[in-house]
Amino acid sequence: MDLNSYADLAVRLVNSTSQGRDRGDGLATVESYRALVADRPHLAGRVTAADLDTLRLLRAELRLIFAAADGGDAVQVAERLNALLTRHPIHQELVRHDSQQWHIHLVESGSAADRHAAGAIAGLTGLVTAAGTDRFGICEADDCGRALIGTGTSAGKRYCSDGCKPKAKVRALHAHGSGQGPPSTAAG
Predict the structure, then answer these.
(1) Tell me, what's the pLDDT at 125?
(2) Is residue 168 part of a domain?
(3) Rama region for 91: left / alpha / beta (φ>0; ψ in -120 to 50; rest)
């Protein structure tokens, strides 16, 4: 099972709102959801209005998980993931294909919401058990608010994309140049 790929479903779902960007809600219509998962057609299937309602609720719960991780509250992350695991059971199967070794796949049954929830929750749960919660969070660029899973182990600032890094650095330089930054420590 590719945990990063499954965890990406959680990030994608949380970031399906505009969140400081000029994008519409990826869960507003069946068509917008299909566009959100266009590269994973098995998730779209027969999407219904009820699926979208379920996914909106899941999106809010996942956002709370990313916020808890961002705040360093690993216990809250675990409690919220455990609650989601209870509500959205994950069904796995052992498979072998394309000359690969036996490995685990999620069973692709149920509604579109069931499949997306199972993947997102399995991915986050797997990453928490493998790497802890330090890699999860919310982009630190002002006015962004997008969820992220960092690829490195750095404790420094974390951004959802390379596009947010320069914006944050420019803002920091402007703040420092206008006297709003930290006081100078240079001896005069």
Answers:
(1) 94
(2) yes
(3) beta
Structural domain contains residue 18 = yes
Please give the C-alpha separations between residue 146 and each of 9, 55, 143, in angstroms, as whole numbers: 13, 17, 9
Q: How many domains does the chain have?
A: 1
Among 39-48, 88-97, 142-151, 166-175, the range scoring the smallest mean pLDDT is 166-175
Place of tokens 């420590």: 185
CATH code for the domain of 106: 1.10.3300.10
pLDDT digits (tens, 9 = 90+) for 137-147: 999 888 888 99
Residue 79 burial (CB count, 10 A)? 13
Measured distance CA(120)–CA(104) in Å, rounded: 15
Range of the domain at 109: 3-177
The DSSP line for 45-87 is SS--HHHHHHHHHHHHHHHHHHHHHHTT-HHHHHHHHHHHHHH
Place of tokens 């309602």: 53
Residue 185 lies in a domain: no
**Cα-based distances in Å from 123 to 1, 29, 31, 132:** 9, 25, 25, 12
Contact between 141 and 164 under an 8 Å Cβ cutoff? The reply is: yes
Q: What is the mean pLDDT of residues 171-184?
A: 54
Query: Could you read off the pLDDT of 9-21 as tens digits, one per residue?
Result: 999 999 998 654 5
Residue 125 half-sphere exposure toward CB, CA atoms < 13 A: 18
